[in-house]
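Hello forum,

I keep getting stuck at the same step: I have a sequence, I want structure tokens, and every attempt I make locally crashes halfway through. Rather than fight my setup again tonight, could one of you with a working pipeline run this one for me? It's a single chain of 264 residues.
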Amino acid sequence: MPSSAPIGIFDSGIGGLTVAKAVKELLPKEQIIYFGDTLHLPYGEKSANSIRRYAIEISTFLKSKNCKSILIACNSASSVANDVTWNNLANDIILLNVIDPLTRYVQTSFNNELVGVIGTKATINSKVYQNKLEKHCIVRSLSTPLLAPMIEEGFINNKISSTVIEEYLNNPILKGVKALLLGCTHYPMIHNEIDRIYKGAVTVLDSNTWIALELQKQLTATDKLSLAQENPDEFYVSDKTDSFERSTRFFFGQSVELKEVKLS
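Reply #2:
Ran it on my machine without issues. Output:
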């Protein structure tokens, strides 16, 4: 597979565009093919079996696009569908998820510390963060189901978002945490708001920087870093609406043209 082959990224909607943005900022010569499964969002409310089925369908689509790497840019899918996605791919395709790079960092940087995790119901109920961190940290997890839809609707940096975020952060479960892990790819959009509420007392971490760095590391190790982008980035959704197209600038930092693809 040539080094100029694209990087596939998928999420349940358009929140994963925050991951795509981080990848493009670190690796500007890479071509991105993004798939947002807007027909089935949010994954956080779906069963594990349904999420696994969606992940197989999407990874098959991205494999048909000759992607050299596929990033699961969704915590819910990362928590329950990483293995089935791996089994669906060829051995030469690099598969990454948004959970492992961040948890590896936390294991060493916050060893024996109290850390909090917020995320969708699917992510928190899977206990994936607790399972990966409990031998190294004391973990407190809180489901925050209102945050992703709030962010999708553009409610950030205002009274509504501040009220909802503060209500969650004041939950006794999170009292005394030294670090807070943002277990949803939507949540980087409210990273600064959370920082302002904590006033520097808690280290707030999202996965975007760490998955981009891990991708760079693995592409370098396998001699697959692109020297120049040969084709334009592509953006697909399973259900196209005007609101999603308008929201791409909000998440990705620039407007993109969305193409609708129905997967069987």
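The CA atoms of residues 152 and 247 lie 8 Å apart. If your local run keeps crashing, start a new thread with the error log.
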